[in-house]
Amino acid sequence: MAQSKRPSNLEPWQDPNAKPYVSIKNLTKTFDGRVAVNEVSLSIYRGELFSLLGRSGCGKTTLLRMLAGFEPPTSGKIFIDGIDMTDTPAYKRPVSMVFQSYALFPHMTVEENVAFGLTREGMPKKEIKNRVAEYLELVQMSGYERRKPDQLSGGEMQRVALARSLVKQPKLVLLDEPLAALDKKLRERTQLELVNIQEKVGITFIMVSHDQEEAMTMSSRIGLMNEGRILQVGGPTEIYEYPNSRYVANFIGTVNLFDGIVMEEGSDHVIVKSSAMEQNLYVSHSASAPAGARVSVAIRPEKIILTNTRPTGSYNWTDGVVKDIVYLGDVSIYHIALASGTTVFATVTNLVRAAERPIQWEDEVFLYWKPENGVVLTI
């Protein structure tokens, strides 16, 4: 009797047998000799909400425009659902794009804006009307059909632009900083709504963002870019908890970096000596780093524990003086000056009111962390 296969809990990108839905191979773009995108290769899977994250000028929007067909690559290939789209013009690609400015036609109603692409394709009017109504309901804009763009808020225009992209049922939706024009609270609410819509329609989304919190909240995976290259690809937890370089660690959130030299490398640990503190750093998991190698140990502020009591043990603790406390409501960020001159950041949840805090400005404190909370970075 044949045994039934156990269901796989692997994500597509973890399954060596899964085929990418969007495949970018060695894609390069130069403008007047300046390299904007440099030998980028990416595999993105069906149904993902994938984010290209990075500072302005890192090449993420250029990469998105090449996917859309608005920019021809200098070299490399683009495949969508197994078909080579490298030289296919934009209007023939199964791709829709939501622009940062939304690009709605000001003289058209909401209904006409959403129907525009279907009308150009010659779809029967009754079918257009039904399809438009379906997608306006999806983005919670039913009842706004007769309004013009100048009668809508920024959030409403964003919904209309999304409906216009989805209504053609493309294979791929590209979003260029889609929430940048919204205020903070509306942006946070819209992030979750956008994720819910993407999950309902099941269409693959690729989004460009410079906002790390936005990318972390919305994405199945993130590709972090700098100077035209992809530095790391991974899920939000992986990128945050296990950055592969100093640049990635610094870009995503706040981090404490202790530069030092590897004193001992074991099968399950690395010991690092840093001039920033007297005690050595013990990391229980690590990238391979031989004794004598120069490395950095990264520790997130929320992993650091503050106390008035001297810790026991020979590793992962030091002492310092509280020089500043940044109150953010739910948490406070303590700036602690070490004797070496290094400033360490520690995040503490505000379980009591500010006046009742056990640790205040100019207090001498001890700080420590667990061996599994450090990450050794070799680049």
Q: Overview of this structure, please?
A:
By secondary structure, the chain is an alpha+beta fold. It has two domains: 15-246, 3-Layer(aba) Sandwich (Rossmann fold); 256-377, RNA polymerase II/Efflux pump adaptor protein, barrel-sandwich hybrid domain (OB fold (Dihydrolipoamide Acetyltransferase, E2P)), CATH 2.40.50.100. The protein is 22% helix and 32% strand. It has eight helices and 20 strands. It has helices spanning 60-68, 110-120, 125-138, 154-166, 184-201, 212-218, 236-241, 246-251; strands at residues 22-31, 34-44, 49-53, 75-80, 83-84, 95-98, 172-176, 204-209, 221-226, 229-234, 256-265, 270-274, 281-283, 294-299, 305-307, 317-327, 331-338, 343-349, 364-368, 375-377. The chain has a six-stranded mixed beta sheet, sandwiched between helices. Strands 13-12-11-14-20 form a five-stranded antiparallel beta sheet, with no helix packed on it. Strands 15-19-16-17-18 form a five-stranded antiparallel beta sheet, with no helix packed on it. Strand 1 and strand 2 form a beta hairpin. The longest helix has 18 residues, at 184-201. The chain is globular.
The CATH topology of the largest domain is what?
A: Rossmann fold
| CATH homologous superfamily identity of the largest domain | P-loop containing nucleotide triphosphate hydrolases
- Main beta sheet strand tally, sense and closure: 6 strands, mixed
Write the element-wise H/E pattern from the N-terminal end onward. Answer: EEEHEEEHHHEHEHEEHHEEEEEEEEEE
Could you say what the CATH architecture of the largest domain is? 3-Layer(aba) Sandwich
* Mean of all residue-level pLDDT scores: 91
Q: How many separate structural domains?
A: 2
